[in-house]
Design brief:
alpha+beta; eight-stranded antiparallel beta sheet; 21 strands; 2 helices; three-stranded antiparallel beta sheet; 250 residues; 26% helix
Length: 250
């Protein structure tokens, strides 16, 4: 098979992934606390063409490294979004490096900057469709009568009595978080109590998605995808002509 097929096919797949990533960013433009994703790509390494087993390394094929682009993963842009006053009592935003902790319905503890909370029928502070907000002593039960919160995350009822405190953490030093869906993260290598933050009530942190940047990236990825498709058609045409000429000679 013509080596150009490998190069162009990898380009098409890479640009398709790029378009999917951008589309997901745009879909979450209005999701509070959402962090935009960026695709990480790299070159196909010759080492990948070797199989390692009990008998050592064995070269697969002819060992020729084609200039192939591969997707290595996604990274989240961790810059903060703008804070927007909402006037809603159960909207909270964070200044600093802290994250809200949510006990997911699957038992996983998620970290998020989305503070658009509600109260469930049992009086627990909840992030809709995700789970209950964690306080320092477990899920935070605040009742149905309304709450206030101070800059440190201490929660009070309307009578001024403290009913709990938000559990606010950050990833441990020199570790990374894993991005999940809906603006959620996990900290597989552990999280520690945050110490540099300010809780702001009646406010939400907007997503950090830059509409102009995403649209520019979308146009560039779409043009690259179209270029790869056109190149694939050209190479296919060249191969067809070559086959036809060989057949005519025979």
């Amino acid at each position: 098979m013509h080596s150009g097929f490998y190069t162009i096919a990898s380009g098409i797949l890479t640009q398709q992934n790029e378009l999917d990533t951008i589309a997901n960013n745009l879909a979450n433009l209005q999701t509070p606390g959402y962090r935009a994703s960026r695709l990480v790509t790299g070159a196909f390494e010759a080492e990948v063409q070797k199989r390692i087993d009990a008998n050592g390394q064995q070269v697969l094929g002819d060992g020729v490294a084609y200039p192939i682009s591969v997707v290595q993963g996604e990274v989240a842009c961790m810059n903060s979004g703008l804070l927007e006053p909402t006037g809603r009592e159960l909207d909270f935003a964070l200044n600093g490096d802290a994250y809200f902790n949510i006990q997911g319905q699957d038992g996983t503890t998620y970290l998020t900057r989305n503070g658009q909370f509600t109260v469930d029928d049992q009086g627990y502070l909840t992030l809709p469709n995700i789970g209950r907000v964690l306080g320092k002593n477990g899920p935070l039960q605040v009742g149905q009568d309304g709450i206030t919160i101070d800059e440190l995350g201490n929660v009070y009822n309307k009578q001024g009595q403290q009913v709990g405190a938000l559990q606010l953490t950050r990833p441990a030093d020199n570790t990374t978080m894993t991005k999940m869906g809906n603006g959620m993260f996990t900290a597989p290598q552990g999280a520690v109590n945050a110490d540099n933050y300010q809780v702001v009530q009646f406010t939400l942190e907007k997503s950090n998605v830059d509409m102009n940047q995403e649209m520019s990236n979308f146009i560039a990825a779409q043009r690259a995808f179209q270029s790869c498709s056109s190149a694939l058609q050209i190479i296919d045409g060249i191969d067809r002509k070559a086959v036809a000429q060989i057949g005519a000679v025979q």
